[in-house]
Each structure stands twice: as C-alpha cells, then as structure tokens.
Design brief:
The structure holds two protein chains of two kinds. Chain A is mainly alpha-helical. Chain A contains eight helices and no strands. The radius of gyration of chain A is 20 Å and the shape is elongated. In chain B, 66% of the residues lie in helices and 0% in strands. The radius of gyration of chain B is 18 Å and the shape is globular. Classes of the chains: A mainly alpha, B mainly alpha. At the A-B interface, helix 1, helix 2, helix 6, helix 7 and helix 8 of A face helix 1, helix 2, helix 3, helix 4 and helix 5 of B. Chain B: Keywords: Cytoplasm, Lipid biosynthesis, Lipid metabolism, Nucleus, Phosphoprotein, Transcription, Transcription regulation. Chain B: One of its GO terms (molecular function) is protein homodimerization activity. Chain B: This is Thyroid hormone-inducible hepatic protein.
Chain lengths: 182, 150
C-alpha cells in the first residue's frame, strides 16, 4: 500500500545522506584493522592533508604503537580527551553510526566527563521539546524547526562523512608509509 | 495502514520518518474535504480549547508539506526561503529568518560535530514523533466530525 521506499531514492533525502555516512564509516571500519595505530595521530584537514603527506613523526609513532586493539574502557578515556587524535575521531564516528542505526533515545546519554563544557546536551533537548509539546506556543513554527534541524543534520552528516573518508585515507597513507620504510 | 517497521530498529530515525509518512498519507486519504477542517480547533487534554491555536486546516497543510521533505529530501535553500517568504511576507518573519541563521552559525561555532549531530538528530526525532501524533489527532477529529468514527 505505502511505497515509501521508492521515494528515498532521491538525491537529497536524509535516507541517502545517512546511508552515505554509514557506508563511509563501514569502509573505515573495514580498512582500519588496528585502531590503536591511530592514537596520537592528528587528523588534518583535507587541504593540509594533500600537501603534507609525509607527516613528520607519525611514521615513528606507528612503529612504537604496535599494541593490539584497546579495551572499551580505554576507548572512553581518549574519546573525551580535550585534544582529539585520529583514534578518538574513529571511535566517535563509529558511535554516531550506531546512534543512526539503532536510535539514541534509550541509550544512556552524555558521559560525566566533558559534559559541563557544552550547554546543548541531548537531555536539554528532550526537556525543551517536551516543554514544546505541552505548550501551545511554538506550534506554528514546528515546520521551521523541522526544516532547520533537517538541514542541520544534513550538514553535519556530510561533514562527518568527509571526516570518515579522510580518516580512512590517512590510515592507508600511514600504513603505506611504514611499509615503504621497511 | 501499513507502517514499515521491520526494516529498522524501533527507535531509528528512519522508522520514525516512515511512520510519520504513513500516518500523513493515511490522514490525506481520510480527509476528503480539507476545508471542513477550517476554524476547527483541537481540544486540549481537559477538553479546553486554547485561544489563538491554529485550526486543523493549518495543521493539515503543514503536516502535508513537511511530509514532502521527509519523503523527498531537503528543499534547496532558495526554494525554502521563497516558500517562507511567499507564506508570510511580513518584515518580522524575515527578521526571524535572519536571526535563525545567525543562531545557526552561532551554534555551529560553539558545538563540536558530535553535539551538533545529537542536537539535530534528537530534535528531528522528537519533532517527527510529535507531528505524527498531531496527524493522528487531525485524522481522528475529521472522522468524528464526519461521523466515520470506527
């Protein structure tokens, strides 16, 4: 009766944006066999990335870091470290992919560390929206709000997709670089 | 009415989008004469009618137009702005759009990508859930008015 799936085959649909992102993260996941190699490697922006392929010191870093994949506990620590290396980006991208695939509502949200620095946390949004639902004000601009968040999500997803692709390429470069030396 | 819930987990945003889409389609099928909804208010939880609340016809058109974006993706920015300008030509609205954009920029600067993602993702989830309920209410009210209550 409902042919909903067909309509998703639109270029700008959220479904496609999410799929692109999930694809990029899956690709990253498959490429990065030893995530701990990404520790302490800064994630450069694409412009810089193209120019300075031979990132100084990162090759040595690779040789030192041959430990197996870290435990989830240590993952959480570096995930919320103030300065993010490639590894924390890697963990972040995977966690966002899971949120997209499984939904975020029933997950224990914001961790204790680092939660005070940002004023916009999912909990605040929940409170804000439940307030919105009960109050009569704000009904008219639901459409605007919807559009605003849809556009925002699109923008964020495309940035994240780009990040996942950069990370995958950087990892390949790092691996290639270290193999080159041997 | 058939909702595609099996392809994704229950809480997934895509499930919520599917459900919204299906509920609005159902509403469109039920409401044969939308103009009947003019000047009809949704009664509140206690049966009270809120002053100044939009009528059901306003809801009906809004829910339909949001459904287009849910199904077909984002309108190009210019098209959206033209649409907003076409609906409400007052200066105040334009100012509001400008402040919204300024607000948007401010948020982008302040938040990291993760927080931005969660802000938009959760908000969309809630807005769509809320709108789905509204579409169901409009449908039910129409059925009541036309004596089709099952």
């Amino acid at each position: 009766m409902m042919q909903i799936c067909d309509t998703y085959n639109q270029k700008h649909s959220l479904f496609n944006a999410m799929n692109r992102f999930i694809g990029a993260v899956n690709n990253m996941d498959q490429t990065v066999m030893v995530p701990s190699l990404l520790r302490d490697v800064p994630l450069s922006e694409p412009e810089i990335d193209e120019v300075s392929v031979e990132v100084g010191g990162s090759g040595g870093c690779l040789e030192e870091r041959t430990t197996p994949a870290p435990s989830p506990g240590s993952a959480n620590e570096s995930f919320f470290a103030p300065s993010r290396d490639m590894y924390s980006h890697y963990v972040l991208l995977k966690s966002i992919r899971n949120d997209i695939e499984w939904g975020v509502l029933h997950q224990p949200s914001s961790p204790p560390a680092g939660s005070e620095e940002s004023t916009w946390k999912p909990k605040d949004i929940l409170v804000g929206l439940s307030h919105l639902e009960s109050a009569d004000a704000g009904e008219e601009d639901l459409e605007q709000q919807f559009h605003y968040h849809l556009r925002g999500l699109h923008t964020v997803l495309s940035k994240l997709t780009r990040k996942a692709n950069i990370l995958t390429n950087r990892y390949k470069q790092e691996i290639g670089f270290s193999n080159w030396g041997h | 009415m058939q909702v595609l819930t099996k392809r994704y987990p229950k809480n997934c945003l895509l499930t919520v989008m599917d459900r919204y889409s299906a509920v609005v389609r159902n509403m469109e099928q039920v409401v044969m004469i939308p103009s009947l909804l003019r000047d009809v208010q949704l009664s509140g939880p206690g049966g009270s009618v809120q002053d100044g609340a939009p009528d059901l016809y306003t809801y009906f058109t809004m829910l339909k137009s949001i459904c287009v974006e849910v199904d077909h993706g984002l309108l190009p920015r210019e098209e959206w702005q033209a649409k907003v300008a076409g609906n409400e030509t007052s200066e105040a609205e334009n100012d509001a759009a400008e402040t919204e954009e300024a607000e948007e920029d401010r948020i982008s600067e302040e938040l990291d990508l993760e927080a931005q993602f969660h802000l938009h993702f959760c908000s969309l989830h809630h807005i769509l859930t809320h709108l789905t309920r509204k579409a169901q209410e409009v449908t039910r009210k129409y059925q009541e008015m036309t004596g089709q209550v099952l």
